[in-house]
Amino acid sequence: MLIVLHTDVSPAQQAAIEARVRELGFTPHPIEGAGRTAIGITGNKGPIDPGHFRLMEGVAECIPVTAPYKLVSREVKHDDTVVDVAGVPIGGRALVVMAGPCAVESEQQILGAARGVAKSGASLLRGGAFKPRTSPYDFQGLKVRGLELLSKARAETGLKVVTEVKDTETLPAVAEAADLLQIGARNMQNFSLLEAVGDLRKPVLLKRGMSSTIKELLMAAEYIVSRGNKQVILCERGIRTFETMTRNTLDLNAVPMLKAQSHLPVVVDPSHGIGIRSAVLPMARAAVAAGADGLIIEVHPDPDRALSDGMQSLDLPLFAQLMREVEAVARAIGRSLYRMPA
Ligand code: PEP
Ligand code: MN
User: Fold this and answer.
1) Which of 124, 126, 188, 207 to mutate to test the pocket of ligand 1 (most atoms within 8 A of CB)?
2) Domain limits at 142?
3) How far does residue 20's CA lie from ligand 2's centre (Å)?
């Protein structure tokens, strides 16, 4: 349920309403809107009777929320959420591009990638330090050394850092190094990990599971937001279908669906979505045309020698071309590309 407050509600009245919510065994979530505040109510004690609140001072109206995902829904918060990633706004008019290798491999590799993508206009550097790999014999990432190299690349280039957190054990170390915590497709329903990042106050990039529905992605986001961490960005990265010619099927349907259902920003990862270097650029253009708030792109200074996902990684000249073309599409739909202040 959503309790909409009067515009002139006093802090004491609001506190009394929130106290009553807690007394009934539920959790209040204040939601600031343009011009009015509302209180979202969540809990697993069954339905809540609006009669408890209707006559309280400061209450304008009580609205039932029909979506199963409550706090991430547009029903509860109409205005777009803009997530602040260390000063970079994601979810506004300007699109944000995150780029870098699948995995951090060496100092030379990550610094080469960081300098190159920064020059072309990326705002965030991506790179996995803890890698969840299908085979235990594949490169597992440089782990803590990888985090150190990401921090070094940030210090040199000013790019913010997005990197994957694989489990709750390594969360403290990854959270210290990252500006944006990536939860990978394989972990979208790792509920302990969702709860753990929900307890932090650090932005999260939540990738859609490869066999997950749009609703399941929103429910996973709800786990994080219901613990108080409102800084969540949704990521479409392709799903498994019967198609075998591409690595996944990039479900661009998800972009307008997620934007309609939720106030959270939506980013698209065409690299994992299609898995073929030459096809990443057209799908990046399509993602922007579909309404994505940003892109995450795998870029490697020497993709044919990459230790993971080389076949879908762009080299630096191709990434520069992607940025030019994506900017043109953004402009055509009345948006722009976010640029880091010099
Ligand atoms: C990645 O970003 O390199 C990655 C492993 O992505 P996903 O979790 O979407 O497979
Ligand atoms: Mn990858």
Assistant:
1) 207
2) 83-337
3) 47
- Please tell me if the CB atom of residue 209 comes closer than 6 angstroms to any atom of ligand 1: no
pTM over 0.85: yes
Q: Is the pLDDT of residue 249 over 90?
A: yes
Whether 300 and 153 map to the same domain: the answer is yes
Residue 272 near ligand 1, beta carbon < 6 Å: yes
Express each pLDDT in 115-142 by its tens digit.
999 999 999 999 999 999 999 999 999 9
The C-alpha angle 166, 139, 248, rounded to 5 degrees, equals 70
In a domain, 30, yes or no: yes
Check: CB of residue 288 under 8 Å from CB of residue 322.
no
Closest CA to 267 of 234, 240, 225: 234
Q: Which residues of 71-85 are buried (b: 16+ CB within 10 A; e: fewer)?
A: bbbebbbeeebebeb
pLDDT tens by residue, 163-220: 999 999 999 999 999 999 999 999 999 999 999 999 999 999 999 999 999 999 999 9
DSSP code at position 77 = -
Query: Are 107 and 192 contained in the same domain?
Result: yes
